[in-house]
Amino acid sequence: MDLAEALLHRYTTSVVAILNASSSESGDASRSLGALRDLLPALSALAPTGGPQLINTLTRWYQQQVRTLASSSGDRNPLGRSRTLQLAFWHAAHRVLAPLPPGALAPNDVARVIDLAFDAIVAGRDPAPHVDAGWGARPLAGGASYPAEDASYHDESGGVHGSRAGIALGSRGGGDTALNASPPPLDPSPSAAALAARVLGFASRHDPDAVTARLVEELEPRVNSESKRGEVHLIVHGARFLHVSLDGVSLGVNTSSDAGPFDAAASSRPTRASSSPADRYVASAAQTVRRLNPCAWHPTYRKSDLRHALCALLHACLAPVAGARIPDGASVAARRDWSEAVTTCREDVDKWIRSKEKKHAAAGLPLLGALHAAETLCGGDGGAGLHAFLDVALHRAFREPRHRAPAADALRAAVEGIAPPLPPGGISPAPATPPLPEPTRGKLRAALGAAAAAIKKGPHGGDVHAVARAVAATARLDPLLAADVLMDLVHQGKVCDATAAGLAAVPDVILLTASRSGNSGTSGNWGNS
Predict the structure, then answer these.
(1) Could you give the C-alpha distances from 143 to 96, 134, 426, 509, 529, in angstroms and in order?
(2) How far apart are CA 515 and CA 526, in angstroms?
(3) Which of 173, 502, 504, 511 has the most other CB atoms within 10 Å of its CB?
């Protein structure tokens, strides 16, 4: 028995002992997990070398224990024991999968994790928060929320739990990836559904196509049923950590003939069996955009409700890879595939928002900002579409009080989308960039000025934090421009929301711009993607 097997045997034995001890008790399940506190970090430490073996054995053991509990009779606390088992499994799965590089898991192991994750998500006891409650909002990538040695765990209700278990963040992407990798607390523990959502995000790093295909399979039978509306939102909310990448190491995505209902043109796109790793990445990302395009879904019941949730989901999927350039090794066909997927989705969402702006703008604007930025990086129109978005759509949205916060998030998404990506882990300063083209700098200055003018007119919901995030993100592209807007916000001569927004942005601006010496910078040529 090697070290990994011995550790896993000790862990599973401890869980069984906890289950046996709780057979006649009805206390809080998370309180009984204290005995696992020292074993979970050990699982994380062994994961880089024995992760696939650990997750294979762990999932099989869990399925066996579930069957054993289901067949047991005379149990005085079946629900409590079942919840304890679920929490113990998902905590262990999170610790094992978090350090693994993309592509480390075999397809069979990925499929098993996906099955268990969606089962836990759909069976969640608490209803999913509505998208209007802000579950699609993100902390600032690279900001103060992610110190390396004192990671914080943010739960789905917005709470922050301290964790001194600082782990190595070996994943690509910005703050959202770092957020997911932070070890969750044992007591009080997040729900099994919340843990499963994060584990599902890790599984998508190994095979994003399998996760998006299963997501579509789970949604399709439910979207037209009024009685299944709650499950639809649980599924969409549970997929919020779906991982998309354009330029990382190979994900090991497989070739599947079942491309999903929104992939009718799959035969005309690069096939993965014969394509390079760069092509597989780009094709996978394009497929995700097509499948999650909100306007590709036409349910007969509460169509707008579903599309609003999908807008938040696709925005959350694109955000961690904002600014990623298509790899140099990608073929012309793969580049065209990605460009077509992004442009089609952007045109669909833009048209849908215009059809009933007051109803859809709040949900669609942040996604539209991210899509405009991605389209700009494709080099098709030289940034004309992004300029029009900054100059017209955002100015109009900032004039509407209830659209100020989503407009600020859209501005931030556009800025992060054209800025070079942050270093891995989301805890290092942003790389230095060449000066922005003057037309883009002028449009960005005008949009930030509109945001500052809007917040000076009075509070409305999340205006303060949204504007602060947008200003701080601008420091990744143009620190001097961000400083000018900060001065405008804080020089009000009184305590007000504008001053609060400026002060809230200062720490993140410092973190995003400090210690630039040694950074070589990244090309800002949009057409070079």
Answers:
(1) 26, 19, 8, 8, 26
(2) 25
(3) 173
Can you tell me the distance from the alpha carbon of 245 to that of 249, in angstroms, rounded to the nearest whole number?
9
How far is the CA of 1 from the CAs of 10, 19, 453, 455, in angstroms? 12, 25, 66, 63
Find the range with the poorest average confidence among 20-24, 324-328, 344-348. Answer: 20-24
Considering only 5-9, 171-175, 388-392, 424-428, which range has the smallest mean pLDDT?
Answer: 171-175
Q: E strand or H helix at 121, and its extent?
A: helix 107-122
Backbone angles phi, psi at 152, to 5 degrees: -115, 145
Give the DSSP per-residue string, 52-91: HHHHHHHHHHHHHHHHHHHH--S-S-HHHHHHHHHHHHHH
Given a cut of 70, is residue 13 above it in pLDDT?
yes
Residues 233-256, buried b or exposed e (16+ Cβ, 10 A)? bbbbbbbbbbbbbbbbeebbbeee
pLDDT (0 to 100) of residue 263 = 36
What pTM was computed for the model?
A: 0.82
Three-class secondary structure of residue 391 per DSSP? helix
**Would the pLDDT of 250 be above 50?**
no
